[in-house]
Specification:
Helix content: 55-70%
Largest sheet: none
Structural class: mainly alpha
Oligomer: single chain
CATH architecture: Orthogonal Bundle
Number of helices: 20
Shape: globular
CATH class: Mainly Alpha
C-alpha cells in the first residue's frame, strides 16, 4: 500500500479516493426520493440542464473553496479557519464558521441515521418476503409497526443502533484502513448494483415510460419555480456548509487534481440520480402511477408495494434497499468525519476513541429524532416535534449561515493573493468567475435559500397547529404558493407540490389517516410526512 503523507488527523493514500469518498458523501436520499420527481414535474431533460447550470455557476464554486481550504490548511474546518484568521489578522469570531459547520454535520448525521435504520430493516424485511403480495394497507402497517408503534419502539432503536454501529466501527479503523478502504469498495459496489437494476429495468420494466417522464424536453413545464427547485436541490444535496469537503480536501494528496475531481463528482452525482429514478419508475409495474410521488412515501411505501408482485420480489426489494442502505451509510460515514476530526484536533485523542465517543454522542442525539415518531410524538414545541425543529435549524439556519460565512470570508477578508493561492492553478477566466461568485453571487443566493427555507418551515408549523408569534394572520412570511420538499407519504398527487417543488419545506402537510399510516397503533402521529422531512435531510 502506498505510504500516505502525514497530516495531524489522517490522509488518503490514493488521489482517486477523493472522488469515491465525495461521490458517496454527495449522493444522498434526496437524489432518490426527490430528484426524479423534480425532473419529471419541471421539464424533464430541461430541468436536468437547469440543475447542472445551478451546480456549475452557484454551488460548484463553494465546493471548490471548501475543498481547497482544507487542502491548503491540512486541517478540518475549525482549525483551517483558525489558520486563515491568523494569516489574515482577522477577528477570531470567524472561527464560528468552523464550529457551526461541525455542529451542523453532527445534527444532520443524528437524524440521517434514523432513515438508515429504516432502510436497513427493509433489506431484511424484503429478503424474508414480508412485502410479497402486500398492498398499500399492509405496507403502511409494516412501516408503522417499525417506526411509530410506541409500544414497540425498542425494535426501531435496535435497527438504529445496528446501523450506527456499522458506521462507527469503520470510522474507528482510521482514515486509511477504515474510511478509505470502505468508500473505495462500497461506492463502486453501490454504483454497480444500481447499474444492474437499471439493466433489469431496461430488460423487463417500462423503461421507455420512465425515460420519457424524466428525460424528455418539455419547455411548457419550465417556470420560475423550476429554477427555484433546481437551485435548492443543487445547494442542499451536496454536503455543503458542514466541513465534509474541507476535511476531504485536507486528506487529499498534493498530486490530486482537486477542481477536476470536484467537477467529476458533481457530474457523477447527477448521473446516479438519473439512473436511480429510471430504475425506480421502470421496475414498478405501474410506474406511471408513481410519477407524481416523491419523498418518504415513495421510498418506504409505494416502492415496496410496486415491487411486491414482481417475479423475484424478495430479491428485488432486498437489492433496492441494499442500495439505499449503501447510500445512507456512505453519507453517514462522511458526515461523521468532520465531527471525529474536530474532536481529534481539539483533544489530541486517538482515532479509535474519538470515533467511539462521537459516534455514541450521535446515537444518543439521534434517539431524540427517533422517539419523535413514536413515544414523544405528542411532545411538541410551537407545533413541531424535536426532529422537525432539528431539520429546520440545520436547513434554515446552520448550513446556509456557514456557507455564507465561508464565501464572505474567502471573498472579502482574505487577501487576493492568499485567496488565489488557496484556489491553486486555474485558467484566468475561471479564477475570476470563481472569485466574484464567492464575493457577490453566492452570499445573496444562499441567504435567499436560508430565509425561504426558514419562512416556509415556520408556515408549515402554523399549519400543524403552532401558536407561535409568526402564525399571526397579519404576518406574511412566505407566499402561499411555496411548495413542499418531501411530500406526505400518503399524498402522492399533491397539487401544491406540483406547483413548485423547490427546496422549501412543506406548507401543506397531509391530513391524518392517509395511507402513510399517520395514526399508528397507539394513536400517535407516526411516520414522517411533508411537514416533518424537509429538503436537506440526507
Amino acid at each position: 500500500m502506498p505510504t500516505p503523507y502525514e497530516t495531524p488527523i489522517g490522509s488518503w493514500t490514493r488521489p482517486t479516493t477523493f472522488f469515491w469518498a465525495a461521490t458517496g458523501a454527495t449522493f444522498g436520499l434526496a437524489n432518490v426520493w426527490q430528484f426524479p420527481y423534480l425532473a419529471g414535474q419541471h421539464g424533464g431533460g430541461l430541468f436536468i440542464l437547469l440543475y447542472l447550470a445551478c451546480l456549475l455557476l452557484v454551488t460548484l464554486p463553494l465546493m471548490v473553496t471548501e475543498s481547497a481550504m482544507g487542502r491548503y490548511a491540512r486541517h478540518g474546518l475549525v482549525l483551517a479557519m483558525d489558520g486563515f484568521v491568523r494569516s489574515a489578522r482577522r477577528s477570531r469570531a470567524w472561527m464560528w464558521a468552523g464550529r457551526l459547520g461541525v455542529l451542523a454535520a453532527f445534527l444532520v448525521l443524528s437524524f440521517t441515521a434514523v432513515f438508515g435504520a429504516i432502510a436497513l430493516a427493509y433489506v431484511f424485511y424484503g429478503a424474508m418476503g414480508r412485502f410479497i403480495g402486500a398492498g398499500e394497507a399492509e405496507a403502511a402497517g409494516i412501516l408503522s409497526a417499525l417506526v411509530s408503534d410506541s409500544r414497540d419502539y425498542r425494535v426501531f432503536m435496535g435497527w438504529h443502533g445496528f446501523f450506527l454501529l456499522l458506521v462507527v466501527w469503520v470510522s474507528m479503523q482510521g482514515v486509511v484502513d477504515g474510511v478509505e478502504r470502505a468508500v473505495r469498495v462500497v461506492a463502486p459496489a453501490m454504483m454497480l448494483i444500481l447499474l444492474a437494476l437499471c439493466g433489469l429495468a431496461a430488460w423487463s420494466g417500462d423503461f421507455r415510460s420512465a425515460s420519457d417522464f424524466m428525460l424528455d424536453f418539455r419547455p411548457a413545464d419550465v417556470t420560475l419555480d423550476s429554477l427555484r427547485a433546481a437551485l435548492f436541490h443543487a445547494f442542499f444535496t451536496l454536503g455543503l456548509g458542514m466541513g465534509v469537503w474541507t476535511l476531504f480536501g485536507a486528506y487529499t494528496p498534493a498530486d490530486t487534481r482537486l477542481k477536476r475531481s470536484v467537477l467529476a463528482v458533481v457530474l457523477m452525482d447527477t448521473l446516479i440520480a438519473i439512473g436511480a429514478g429510471l430504475a425506480i419508475y421502470s421496475l414498478a409495474p405501474d410506474g406511471h402511477s408513481m410519477e407524481g410521488e416523491r419523498g418518504f412515501g415513495l421510498l418506504f411505501l409505494s416502492l415496496p408495494v410496486a415491487l411486491a408482485d414482481l417475479p423475484g420480489s424478495q430479491f428485488l426489494v432486498a437489492a433496492v434497499f441494499l442500495v439505499i442502505v449503501m447510500i445512507v451509510w456512505t453519507t453517514s460515514l462522511s458526515l461523521l468525519e468532520p465531527v471525529v476530526g474536530w474532536f481529534q484536533e481539539w483533544t489530541g485523542a486517538p482515532r479509535g476513541l474519538s470515533a467511539f465517543l462521537m459516534g455514541s454522542s450521535v446515537w444518543l442525539a439521534g434517539l431524540g429524532s427517533l422517539l419523535s415518531f413514536n413515544l414523544w410524538s405528542d411532545e411538541r414545541f410551537a407545533g413541531g416535534t424535536l426532529f422537525r425543529w432539528l431539520e429546520l435549524i440545520t436547513g434554515g439556519l446552520l448550513i446556509p449561515l456557514v456557507s455564507i460565512l465561508i464565501s464572505v470570508f474567502a471573498g472579502w477578508y482574505l487577501t487576493r493573493n492568499l485567496t488565489f493561492t488557496i484556489l491553486g492553478k486555474a485558467p484566468r477566466l475561471i479564477g475570476r468567475i470563481w472569485f466574484w461568485v464567492m464575493r457577490l453571487i453566492l452570499p445573496l443566493v444562499v441567504a435567499y435559500i436560508g430565509l425561504q427555507y426558514t419562512a416556509t418551515s415556520l408556515v408549515a408549523l402554523c399549519d400543524s397547529g403552532s401558536n407561535g408569534l409568526w402564525c399571526k394572520p397579519t404576518v406574511e412570511l412566505a407566499p402561499s404558493s411555496m411548495t413542499p420538499t418531501a411530500p406526505d407519504a400518503g399524498d402522492s398527487n399533491n397539487e401544491a407540490g406540483d406547483a413548485g417543488g423547490g427546496g422549501e419545506p412543506e406548507t401543506n402537510p397531509g391530513e391524518p389517516g392517509e395511507k402513510s399510516g399517520k395514526n399508528g397503533p397507539a394513536g400517535q402521529e407516526s411516520d414522517p410526512n411533508n411537514g416533518d422531512i424537509l429538503y436537506h435531510s440526507v
